[in-house]
Amino acid sequence: MISDKFYNEGYLEVFKIESGNALLELQKKIYSLTKDKLIDHDLNESIDTKLRLPFKEIPEKKFWSFFMNEINSSQELDNLIESKPIYEAFKKVFNEPCRFDISAFRARLPDQKRVIYDWHQDEGTWFLSKKKLNNKLSATLWFSINGSNYNNSIHILKKSHKKKLLNHKYVDGQGYFSADLKEQINENDIYKVKTEPSEAVLFHPLTLHRSVSEVNVINMQPRYSVDIRFFEKKGNLKYKTNLIFKIKKFFKSL
Predict the structure, then answer these.
(1) Extents of the domains making up the chain
(2) Would the pTM count as exceeding 0.90?
(3) Has residue 216 got a pLDDT over 80?
(4) Which distant-in-sequence residues (6+ apart) come within 8 Å of 184 by Cβ?
(5) What is the pLDDT of residue 173?
(6) Residue 11 forms beta bridges with which residues?
(7) Taking all residues of the chain, what is their mean pLDDT, rounded to a whole number?
(8) Domain 2-253 adopts which CATH fold?
């Protein structure tokens, strides 16, 4: 069964989601907000081609914040998350998928370092949340809007979900997104992601993953994705965690 790989390996490899009009409308929304910042181009090109065009120059930081807010609050994004193809993707691993409280559009724009995340487990973020989001058997669908390559996507550490929830360190501007790794990671244990638009990977909330960082390189081509999360209606996540992280949770709850 497909779900066996998710529970045994901690993820499902890249697969296609026939997201149709829901994705197209979101792509159009993104293009409408960025088209004036892209290099000169033929307006008759396909939307996939347009969204892969490089920026003319590094955008101002305030544009990134505006852009993120516009998309994350848009009906187009909500329509994609609520679409039947997305629901069916989670049916690969859950019997009764329910939408998780937090999903997010991710825009990797030129020279925007805030979107580069270190190795972390999604449960590490929920563990310290006061919204009671932890202990849900959830999954994250990393959904590609305009495609990605091995230099600007994500890495997934195979079978890392079978270990305990690690202590996570706070990163300014991000939150608890840096796992306190004690062991050297074997390069052969990393699943490296490459996608076309409307392709995705699905992974467990305890699976370690990170953004791929292009060190000392300014890539003018943007990369757009969505972290979509659902959980199993009748499933709970059970795990052991680091003592230091338990202490952090105690003080956060005061």
Answers:
(1) 2-253
(2) yes
(3) no
(4) none
(5) 81
(6) 203
(7) 92
(8) Jelly Rolls (2.60.120)
